[in-house]
Amino acid sequence: MNTQSAARSTVYGYPRQGQNRELKKAIEGYWKGTVSADALRQTAAGLRKANWQQLAADGIDEVPTGDFSYYDHVLDTSVLLGAIPERHRAAVAADPLDGYFAMARGTQEVAPLEMTKWFDTNYHYMVPELGPDTTFTADTSKQVAELREALDLGLTARPVVVGPITYLLLAKPAPGVDEHFEPLSLLDKILPVYAEVLADLRAAGAQWVQLDEPALVQDRSADELDLTARAYAVLGGLTDRPRLLVASYFDRLGKALPVLAKSPVEGLAIDFTGPAEGNLDDLVASSEVRSKRLVAGVVNGRNIWINDLTKSLATLTRLRSLAGQVDVSASCSLLHVPYDVAAEDGVAPEVASWLAFARQKSAEIATLTLGFTEGAEAIAEQLNANRAALDSRSGSALTNNPDVRARVAAVTEADSHRSAPYAERSAAQQARLGLPLLPTTTVGSFPQTTELRTARADLRAGRIDAAQYDERIGTEIQEVLAFQEKAGLDVLVHGEPERNDMVQYFAEQLDGYLATQHGWVQSYGTRYVRPPVLVGDISRPEPMTVRWWAYAQLQTERPVKGMLTGPVTMLAWSFVRDDQPRSETARQVALALRDEVNDLEAAGAAVIQVDEPALRETLPLRRADRAAYLSWGTEVFRLTTSGVRADTQIHTHMCYVEFGDILNALDEMEADVASLEAARSHMQVAHELGDAGYPRGVGPGVYDIHSPRVPGTPEVVSLLQKGLAAIPAERLWVNPDCGLKTRGWPEVRDSLDNLVGAARTVREQL
Ligand code: GLN
Ligand code: ZN
């Protein structure tokens, strides 16, 4: 290709659920038996069609296919490649749809695939399970059918498939397979199956196929890059195939860029937003891309802010000389953003003008394509409107609260350090609390019963008033406390019954945060969340948790923990503003939370927990960026928690941890006590911390709350004994892995009774 044709607009994927989450309703109805398989298929086909037509109407020239999913696109890839685990084969053979859902959710008889986070997003995928004996066989029926559906609408369509390197890198050894088995060793077995997939898609009418390789934006070894080169040499060398577009997103390609550039694929799709902006400079050095199609991801596909169209046009213009053909897209699939800002009638029009969901982003892509092809004059009106919206945002009082700004600017190093060293603090805390060795506690929430959910729904619908709602919450807190006293726990919690969600609850009470009405994004399967938006400068108009904490503490002599969500987690589960560094937003949130911590202390709280379950989740994909992130991430935790006296005990909690990465970070948070997920890894965390000489209190979970299973007392005793081999009894806490909100009361009662019983048994042996 050396003559450039007009730029085309495209996207890699679109929200799947439907404007009103029709897909969720249909799938859950199917599970319950109230929706037939045919009705589900029809709903799904209708949603796909509506999405494609919407995209075409909004000016997208080339639509994606195969991105639709009943549950997860990585699971779809496992089906496409025939990588069905042994334990699910019978179900899949009996009925492919039910078998598919059995892989996703398990059945009475078989466990589901494991689920984990898709890179650093809040989307979760089903982890492929592979072993040396895995055989792959192509089942292209879904991909082919969906391509045909789009082609039949008269659209230009491009199937999107997870690429072989990423698929294998995302996989894990199947149960029973040696844990050191590397799925990437299956590359030579999987490539012929990809070849079949490509041939089938070509036969079905695909001109191009997109192979997604986001795993290449992480640090990859020389071997992995060699295998990447080999994979694309093989696929590129096939004769019976469509043209290949290899897509990456979420960060820069780094050393993988020249590998892909040199490979015989016809196109690359590259992210030029956020941490991936560096791809632009890297591309200058690559002569091979000059003969390829380059799909430029200039519209951020994972935030909800309008694009700076002028800046994107400049990027596109720079790219023009660097590639054979430049097309325009979002940086990644629009799966990560909600449908349509227009549905948000509760948002002030000025603020709405700063927001872009999937529909608005599609329109931006179309506008940029036009401006890029025909010149800025062709989109003068849109550029003006865009400039006006950006100006309104940067000049708004909402984004420039002078009090907040002054306060952040005045933060000193001393503000993020406790007044006394740990040894002094722990002595003062022990004098105040008088806790036994191996103190017992829980992570915060107790079961969110149907009564509680109903009460919340009743309040929203006006069936009960605030006073009646509060009464129900009060009763629940009393019951939770009475149970904990009876069970013999040492440090109690109020159970968080008033909280719908650990981030939303605070977002609703902080100024500068925006809640959406319809801003659903897929978390996993049929679970959707509505992340709140950090839209302006953050401040706390009044205390958020003191009232219920004080209410709880009145009911008992034992200490009740104050319970807050930490600043990094507040950011991680929200849409974060992009007009200032994340660290700046985090500092604003931290100062608001610091006031809350101090108010809890003033109200009498002797123990305050600040949860940071997401610290590990938002770890940058590139190792080189991690130190800077952990530095501000731990600083804002300290800023939140350092305003208290020495005798106030600060706890933190983290889940889903792989401690190798964040051991130092845990140390830098300087929390007096950290409760951590550990039950399934048999206290490994305790040993890692012990080996590293971790100096403070730690509660490695002894009760796996991800399962309804009740751990027996002897099992907990043995975990505690293991823990004691690494951490002395003065500093070893006894607690579950995480909050109990998803569990049922019967199993929680028994489990906590056993947990306290085990702590008592082990104390007697000391
Ligand atoms: N305090 C929260 C709870 O118990 C912590 C939840 C979490 O770590 N995800 O629910
Ligand atoms: Zn947790």
Describe this structure in words.
Catalyzes the transfer of a methyl group from 5-methyltetrahydrofolate to homocysteine resulting in methionine formation. The protein is 43% helix and 12% strand. It has a 7-stranded parallel beta sheet. A 5-stranded parallel beta sheet has the order 16-17-18-19-20. α12 (309-320) links the parallel β10 (293-299) and β11. α1 (22-32) packs antiparallel against α2 (37-57), α23 (582-603) packs parallel to α24 and α24 (626-641) packs parallel to α25 (659-669). It is globular and about 75 Å long. It binds glutamine and zinc ion. Residues 443, 613, 653, 655, 738-739 line the site of zinc ion.
Which structural traits does this protein have?
globular; 28 helices; seven-stranded parallel β-sheet; 43% helix; 766 residues
Write the layout of secondary structure elements.
Blueprint: H1 22-32, H2 37-57, E1 62-65, H3 73-80, H4 89-94, H5 96-105, E2 115-117, E3 124-126, E4 129-130, H6 141-152, E5 156-162, H7 164-170, E6 172-173, H8 187-203, E7 208-212, H9 222-236, E8 243-247, H10 256-262, E9 267-271, H11 279-284, E10 293-299, H12 309-320, E11 325-330, H13 349-352, H14 358-374, H15 380-395, H16 402-409, H17 422-433, H18 450-461, H19 466-487, H20 504-507, E12 511-514, E13 521-524, E14 527-529, E15 533-539, H21 546-554, E16 562-565, H22 567-572, H23 582-603, E17 607-611, H24 626-641, E18 649-654, H25 659-669, E19 673-676, H26 684-691, E20 697-700, H27 713-724, H28 745-765
Parallel strand pairs: 1-5, 4-6, 5-7, 7-8, 8-9, 9-10, 10-11, 16-17, 17-18, 18-19, 19-20
Antiparallel strand pairs: 2-3, 12-15, 13-14
Helix pairs in contact: 1-2, 8-9, 9-10, 12-14, 16-23, 18-19, 23-24, 24-25, 27-28
Bound molecules: glutamine (GLN) and zinc ion.
